[in-house]
Specification:
This protein is α+β, with helices and mostly antiparallel strands. The chain folds into 3 domains: 99 residues, PAS domain (Beta-Lactamase, 2-Layer Sandwich); 75 residues, Signal transduction histidine kinase, dimerisation/phosphotransfer (DHp) domain (Helix Hairpins), CATH 1.10.287.130; 162 residues, Histidine kinase-like ATPase, C-terminal domain (Heat Shock Protein 90), CATH 3.30.565.10. Helix content is 43%, strand content 23%. The chain has 10 helices and 12 strands. The chain starts with a helix and ends with a strand. Bound molecules: adenosine-5'-triphosphate (ATP) and magnesium ion. The site of magnesium ion has 5 residues, from helix 8.
Length: 343
């Protein structure tokens, strides 16, 4: 018979906990545990509920007398996959305790970190391969041919620029992440941010030979922000418009004050960068702000892109309690709008 103090202790624990006897029958289950396995688990054979090979093997070791062990256990709740760490401890005379902790978020973060490292390595490997190949070529007879040498050095310089671009993007991503929880407070004029960005992009704008329409009222209120980071946001959005949308021959930069917006308790600025280029299928929209995501890998890479720009934009906007709204359709160009609250 279960002692009352022990069952109230188990019931009080927030994470799923089961008390199981030496034959494997469940003697007590708290509400978190019955939520995970259903109420039928009371009195049932635990082996029937933990059949996944790792956790089943762990169970057998503990039933055979091992005092402590743990294993992972995957459960599905709705469409979500949850990863639990199951710890078995053989502390009580006739029973052992199985406790479950939800490690889904830790596992997801770990998977994300692995993906990130794999992506960075992959992005660095291709320019490095090119560089190594040309160094070898230049060390051979081709090194004595001035025309070939000049051509190869040019390609090598391009690859070096690509690598430093990637490193610069990675550093700015990590800088943005480091201060993401700290809200920026200095008053910033969006008109000044946009003018400075356009001035810095002047050479690209001229090279793209597009018409630029600038429609930003002079009396917009300042917003609390981080000037340099906001320049980064619009630098990437305008640069993207030039890189992927120049075929339309036109780029609109605009800003409006919106008195009220759902989800905000203050007025907001809506700053739009609109191009008239090829656009893209809206199914890509949710993925665009993922790190390293590019719709057309080859094309973005040719123009020196690494797919980090919009990921940085999203982080900076979220630090400003802002939002990014993307609209596009094939053949109709794209509009990227940053919504920034005024207080
Ligand atoms: N204005 C646009 N028109 C069409 N496609 C766009 C536009 N802006 C972004 N994209 C698509 O979104 C992808 C991701 O953009 P993002 O700015 O994150 O990366 P990138 O421009 O490829 O590289 P980076 O910004 O790191 O140099 C681009 O590769 C492109 O496929
Ligand atoms: Mg970009």
């Amino acid at each position: 018979m279960m002692d009352v103090a022990l069952s109230s202790l188990v019931a009080a624990l927030p994470q799923p906990v089961l008390l199981v006897n030496k034959q494997g029958f469940v003697q007590a289950a708290n509400s978190a545990a019955t939520e995970l396995f259903s109420t039928r688990i009371m009195g049932a054979q635990i082996r029937a509920y933990l059949r996944q090979p790792d956790v089943a093997a762990m169970l057998e070791r503990v039933l055979a007398g091992q005092t402590e062990d743990s294993a992972s256990f995957i459960a599905h709740s709705g469409s979500r996959e949850m990863v639990w760490k199951v710890v078995a401890r053989n502390g009580l005379a006739e029973m052992f305790v199985l406790s479950f902790s939800d490690i889904s978020d830790i596992e997801a973060a770990e998977a994300q970190r692995r993906d990130f490292v794999a992506n960075v390595s992959h992005e660095l490997r291709s320019p490095l391969t090119v560089l190594a190949g040309f160094i070898e070529t230049l060390q051979g007879p081709a090194g004595d041919d001035p025309a070939a040498r000049a051509e190869f050095l040019e390609i090598m310089a391009e690859q070096a620029v690509r690598m430093s671009g990637l490193v610069a993007d990675l550093l700015s991503l990590s800088r943005v992440e480091a201060v993401e929880k700290i809200r920026p407070r200095e008053p910033v004029s969006i008109d000044m941010v946009l003018k400075a960005t356009l001035a810095a992009l002047r050479p690209q704008i001229e090279a793209a030979s597009i018409r630029l329409d600038y429609d930003v009222p002079e009396d917009l209120p300042d917003i609390p922000g981080d000037y340099d980071q906001l320049v980064q946001v619009f630098h990437n959005l305008i640069e993207n418009g030039l890189k992927y949308g120049a075929s339309g021959g036109r780029l609109d930069v605009s800003a409006v004050l919106i008195p009220a917006l759902p989800g905000y308790d203050c007025p907001a600025l809506r700053v739009g960068i609109r191009d008239y280029g090829e656009g893209f299928d809206p199914i890509f929209i949710p993925r665009l702000t993922e790190r390293f995501y590019r719709i057309d890998k080859a094309r973005s890479r040719d123009s020196g892109g690494t797919g980090l720009g919009l990921a940085i934009v999203k982080h900076i906007l979220s630090r400003h309690r802002g939002r990014l709204i993307i609209r596009s359709a094939p053949g109709e160009g794209s509009k990227f709008e940053a919504v920034l609250p005024c207080s």
